[in-house]
Amino acid sequence: GKVSIGGNGVELPLSLEMGTTILTVNSLADGTFRILVPPATYTLSSFTTRTENTVDVTYSGSSTFTVGSIDVYLAQSLGRDTKHGVIATWDSTAVQTAGVDSTVSYAVTIINTGNIRDKFLVTFTGTGFNVSFTPAEVEVDFGPNSKALVVANIVPLGSAPAGEREVTCLVRSLNLASTRADLDLIVNVMPHRGVSVTSLDTSTTVNSVTTITAFAVNNTGNAQDDFVVQIANLALLQSRGWNAVIIDPATSEETSSVTIAAFGTKALHVRYTQLGVDADASVEASVFAYSKNVTSASAYANVPIIVPDLAVGKGDLTITREDVTLVNDAQIRLATNVGLLVALIALVVVFYLLRRRKGYGGSSKGGAKK
């Protein structure tokens, strides 16, 4: 037979086994060997270790065959004990600070810990950041200098909370997907401030002259913030017959400031109080909110007055809104009632006449005919 590695014959010890009997021989320099044995079934094993790029690599092979009355030729090729491995490192003492939509770069070292040349892909697996890699794919040899440098470019998004945040990445082999390494970079995200105000357009009637409309203050920033909330057009509301205050529904108390967690929401109420019978219900409160930390982070929204339910008495009344019109016409209702009364009187007269024709009513004079 012949023993080879990568198609080339090699000289190495061979182990021939039959049951508990073991025979050891050496192949020649060209890998060939010849052994004289009695007929039986045998297992031939061989292995060797080679140094490649200063790394010890094992080659091995084993074959089972049966010898009869004629020669048996065995070609045994030794397989490489290939190992894949990868490590990703960075200087964790060099944490950088970045604002939203700004870019910071980190140097990442990819180390091939296997014993074969390999290709690796670097990807971002987290959220809250835009991350790109230059290059995203690298080929790394094995051995003591088996390294490649990748630059990670990181951009925090508005959804990234303030403070030190992990940027989770993954390095994996393109030849063996199970070979992978986690890479957790850290970026100190700077706080940014933002706010929005939204009318929830819901109402609760308190009494005949007071109504409540809900609205929400939203912290669109990435850090907890304190906000001032106020009604910017209070003088206009009062001139139209309404007074308005902002109420915290959790305490039912008047408030002018709220504290909201990053990306959080706080529900508040505008309580309207009617100052006169001719109050204009079409006017809206302009609710203004701004950050105490950065006053330029501000927003406003119009919060409508939702009129409480009305009890309609006698007389004409027309209520018009964009989606519905309600009319209560007293004259039509009066004419309808008069018509019903006339019909009822006519029915009574007819009933009376029928009774007389049948002899059930009338005068008692004259008596009945026999």
Q: How much helix, percentage-wise, in residues?
A: under 10%
Biggest sheet overview: 5 strands, antiparallel
How many DSSP E strands? 28
Low-confidence stretches: 363-370
Distance between termini? Answer: 151 Å
> How many helix segments?
2
User: Based on CA inertia axes, which overall geometry fits?
Assistant: elongated
Q: What is Rg? A: 47 Å
Q: What's the helix-strand series?
A: EEEEEEEEEEEEEEEEEEEEHEEEEEEEEH
Give the neighbour order of strands across the main sheet. 4-3-5-6-8
| Backbone structural class | mainly beta
Could you tell me the strand content as a percent range? Answer: over 45%
Task: Tell me, rounded to a whole number, the average pLDDT.
Answer: 86
Notes on the protein architecture:
Helices cover 9% and strands 51% of the residues. With 370 residues, it is mostly beta strands. The strands form seven sheets. The protein has a five-stranded antiparallel beta sheet, with no helix packed on it. The protein has a five-stranded mixed beta sheet with strand order 10-17-16-12-14, with no helix packed on it. A hairpin with a 6-residue loop joins strand 16 and strand 17. The chain is elongated. The termini are far apart. Residues 363-370 have low confidence and may be disordered.
Q: How do the helices and strands line up, and which of them pair or pack?
A:
Elements: E1 2-5, E2 8-9, E3 13-18, E4 21-26, E5 40-52, E6 55-67, E7 75-77, E8 79-80, E9 86-89, E10 96-98, E11 104-112, E12 118-124, E13 129-134, E14 137-140, E15 147-156, E16 163-173, E17 180-189, E18 195-207, E19 210-219, E20 225-231, H1 234-239, E21 242-248, E22 253-254, E23 257-260, E24 265-274, E25 284-291, E26 298-304, E27 317-320, E28 325-328, H2 330-357
Parallel strand pairs: 1-7, 10-17
Antiparallel strand pairs: 1-2, 3-4, 3-5, 5-6, 6-8, 9-11, 11-15, 12-14, 12-16, 13-15, 16-17, 18-19, 19-24, 20-23, 20-25, 21-22, 21-24, 25-26, 27-28
